[in-house]
Structures are given as C-alpha cells and as structure tokens.
Q: What sequence folds into this?
C-alpha cells in the first residue's frame, strides 16, 4: 500500500454566505465538512485511482472523531491515525456567493507532546515495511520538532521506501537536507527554499540542497521536473479557470501512483498534470472528475530531455 | 430551580486573527470555545448569582458533545438537553486584533424532526413542575415549527410557572400571542414586532399583542419596562464602551433571578441593568465581573410610576 502522513490533519469546513462583510453578522446558508490536511487529500485521490492507501498522522478531540468518521466513509482508505490529547484543528473556508471568492481561517492545530511524537514515530516505522511509497504532507502542528520531516525521510530511506515530501518553510528546508526522493514545491515554496524566483534555477538549486528529484508545480503553467533521469516540463491543454484547492495534492497523488506503477517520468508528469487540472476544473473543491481527468490525459504536453548516460 | 430553554444551542468559537482581510488566508492565533445559545448564557449568569438552574433544548453530534462537556465544567448548571440526530451548530466570532472588531458567522443549526420536537416537549413538561421560572431563549433551529414558543409558553402557564420569552421575528410574534409573563426585546426586535421605532409606543403595543410585561433593552440607554404594576426606566451610570455580546442574556438572568426572589420591579430592573452593564464592561465577551456588578448596583438610576390601583 501507499502511506500518506498528515501530522496536522484537519476538519475542513466550508461555509457559503451570501456576501462576506467584515465586522457584521452572517447567517451561513450551507455548511459542508470533510477530512482535511494535505495527506488525507492525497489519499482520497490515490484511492479513487484504485490504489490501496493508509493514512497516518495525528487525530484528537471531537473534531478528530468527525475526521475519522468521515474517513470511514471514504472507500479504500485505511485509517492508521495516532491519537493525541489536543483536538484536531478546523479550517474554515468562507465562500462569498456573490463573488465566488474564498476567505480562509486556519486553526494552528493541537499541541503535540514529546511522548505523542515518539508514539507516532513508532507507528510510522511499523507501517513502513508494508508501504510501497510514502508521502509526507503539510504543516507541522505545534510541539512537533521542526526537523520532524528529516527524521521521517531518513526512516523511509532506511526502510528502502521511496519518499515524497510536500511541505513548506523551515520544515521543507530541514526535510530536504535528509535527501527525500521527490519534493513537490509550488513556485512560492520553491522561492522561499532557494531564494530564487526563476523556476528552473530554483529547481536545480533545490536538488543541490538534497532532493533527488524536484517537481515544481507552476499553477496553470503545469509542472517542471528536474530528476537524475532527465528534465521535463508538462503543460495542461489550456488555462483553466476554477478552484485551485487540492490541485497540488492531486499532483502528489499522480506522481506517487505512477511511481509505484513504475511508469517513466513523462507519464508520471502527464498523470499528475491531468489530475491537478481536473481538480481545478471540478465544481467541488478538492475533488476531480474522472471523465475530465481521462480526457485530459491525452491532451497534456510533455517536453524535455533525458540526461546523457 | 430556574429552567432555561435553548432550542438552538451552539458551540461558540472565537478566533483571534491579526487582521481580517476578505479573500485571503488567515492563520488563527487563538481559538476559544464555550457553550452558546442565549439560554445557556442566561443559565451561566443565573448560576453565578447563586441560583440552581437547569438547561434544556437540543444537543447533537460532535459539537453537541463538546457543548455538554463544557457545561459539565460550569458549576451549578444541570444539563437536561435532549438529543437530536443533527449536529449542534457552531458560531464563529472572528476578532480582528488590529481594530478589535468582530465578524460573526452563524451556522443555521440541526434540522429537528417532528419526533425529536415531540420528545423535547415531553421532557420540557416533565421539568416544569420543579421550575420556579422558565426562560425561552433564542432562535429556532430548522424543523421546529415557527409557533414553537407559543406552545411552550402555554405549557408553562398551564403549569403556573412564570415564563419569559426572548426571541425575535415570527417566533416572537407567535410567542407573544400566547401571553408570556415577560418579553425582553431589544429596540430592533421591538420595532420588527410592532412596526414602531418609538420605544414607549412600541412597548405599549407589544403588551396589547399579549405580553403581560415588556422590558425593552435600549442598549446604553438602559431598560424600559411597561408592566401591569407600573412603568419604569432604568439607566446605567455612564455610557460604557465594551463588547455588547451577552448583555441581553445577562439582563434576562437579572430579571428572572429577581422575579423568583419576589423583588419589586425597580429592583429587578436595577439588577438587570447592572448585570448587563457589567457584561459590556468585561474584557471577556459574555462574562461579567462580580465587583463591577456590585459596584454598579448602587449607581443604576430607576425612574417611573406605579399604576394607579
């Protein structure tokens, strides 16, 4: 199975309001809830692609219970979340029905104790031997050491399990130094890591910092991959308008599923780009439409070159 | 004991953010939770005044569980909430730390089935014989008939328990027709009920519609009471700046506690005004400071006249 790690799981709540006016009172017209946190989103896409997937990370309190109940309803996703005392965070997306714009409010997450962090590491190491690949996703909750992803990357490598890291800031910087197989930063995360706003230069620099392969997601301009096997650029057929929520997580699922299927890089990028684009085009935030995805598979362009042997 | 009814209980969540900017993403710096809904707020103030108080209404889902756990920590409040399948609503108050202003997002609440509404009525009727007074507070959740408060007022009167109604809109209009002992509308609710923006005229009109006594809360201008025993106006010592959240609920608790203590109207109004003002002055939304309250008791002015016999 594929293992996804979400240390800062979330209950993602969406509120629709007729119009958001600061400093006034709003009656929410529609409330929807779903399990959130990048690794849980990645898992849902992997399961939809037919892969066996296990999710781990932390869960706590009443919100954690709701997340776990909602996960039970997600076919193909096995729940291996580790309990903590603090409550799983909520994220609130307030959608203004007039403009379609979203205002996001993210709670910081539970404070994880050193004992809870140790318990997680044990659970993670127990899961690695049966994992074909692992994705480490998202922000760290308070209390988890900033070098956490470096520890988890090293454990995966020791177990010879390919590991993809998708995070940002200092957690990414420290994690990259532990030499993950793939990182998937967006343009902003890549610039923050490397100091360069020029995607190709920044991607190459990120490899020098330790990542074996770097797949930079450049929004509507597709993906740029620099790997030991070569470098490629994948481009979706046309600039799509829609909700970018979950597009990066869909790309991670595309890369990871194609990796365990042992597909070459151009096919991995095609799949990741088609999934990501189908997610943007979907009317439901973070979901992708299978028909759109399959149609897009034939329309993604990949250009690039194989590294000379 | 005093009984308070909150059909649309809530988990009141407060988020502090450095500055609220619509259509951007915010990291919440502080999250606080407390049991909410007007009747629960009234109960907390009554308990702080030393009264035995029982709360009823609906509770459901993970949010309802949290509300009940938090209630367990409120000394002197007995939980007699009735379970429903739908989840108790959340209300989110987003406090902008830069301006101090609050943006409010209120979920509509669970949809209550006819069976659940019947179960509540039975539980309510079982509680009435041991109640010295009852407060019916706040909005109706979806599914509860708009005439609900009229039914609950009639049941209280049949059991000879004094009943105070604090709601708005059509629920208030229907409830008033069932002849509650006291209603406590604010200026806006009173204008909506009567069509008049002139407080004295509107208060008198509200009595003609069925309320035995009307106590209009006029914000920083205090309370205006028109009753069979006479009419009075109470005024706080000075215009206080602060957070008006819970001021109306504190006034209800003041009126109700003084009623069961058989105090005359001027003393009821003094207590309600002092509690309400102490709540506005409190740094914690919805709480009151006992010292401030006791000091204010001596500084509220009540003027008025007793009805000629």
A:
């Amino acid at each position: 199975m594929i293992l996804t790690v979400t240390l800062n799981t979330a209950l993602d709540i969406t509120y629709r309001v007729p119009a958001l006016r600061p400093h006034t009172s709003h009656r929410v017209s529609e409330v929807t809830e779903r399990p959130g946190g990048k690794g849980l989103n990645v898992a849902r896409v992997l399961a939809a692609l037919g892969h066996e997937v296990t999710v781990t990370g932390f869960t706590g309190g009443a919100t954690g219970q709701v997340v776990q109940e909602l996960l039970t309803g997600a076919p193909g996703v096995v729940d291996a979340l580790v309990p903590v005392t603090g409550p799983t965070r909520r994220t609130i997306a307030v959608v203004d029905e007039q403009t379609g714009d979203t205002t996001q409010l993210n709670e910081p997450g539970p404070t994880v104790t050193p004992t809870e962090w140790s318990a997680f590491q044990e659970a993670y190491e127990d899961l690695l031997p049966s994992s074909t690949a692992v994705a480490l996703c998202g922000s760290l909750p308070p209390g988890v050491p900033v070098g956490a992803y470096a520890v988890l990357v090293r454990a995966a490598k020791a177990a010879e399990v390919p590991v993809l890291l998708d995070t940002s800031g200092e957690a990414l910087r420290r994690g990259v130094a532990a030499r993950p197989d793939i990182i998937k930063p967006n343009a902003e995360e890549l610039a923050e890591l490397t100091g360069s706003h020029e995607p190709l230069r920044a991607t190459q620099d990120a490899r020098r910092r330790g990542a074996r392969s770097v797949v930079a997601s450049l929004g509507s301009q597709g993906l740029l991959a620099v790997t030991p096997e070569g470098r490629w650029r994948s481009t979706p057929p046309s600039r799509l308008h829609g909700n970018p929520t979950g597009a990066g997580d869909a790309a991670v699922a595309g890369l990871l599923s194609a990796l365990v299927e042992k597909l070459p890089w151009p096919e991995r990028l095609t799949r990741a780009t088609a999934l990501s684009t189908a997610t943007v085009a979907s009317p439901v935030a973070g979901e992708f439409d299978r028909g759109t995805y399959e149609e897009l598979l034939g329309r993604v362009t990949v250009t690039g070159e194989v590294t000379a042997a």
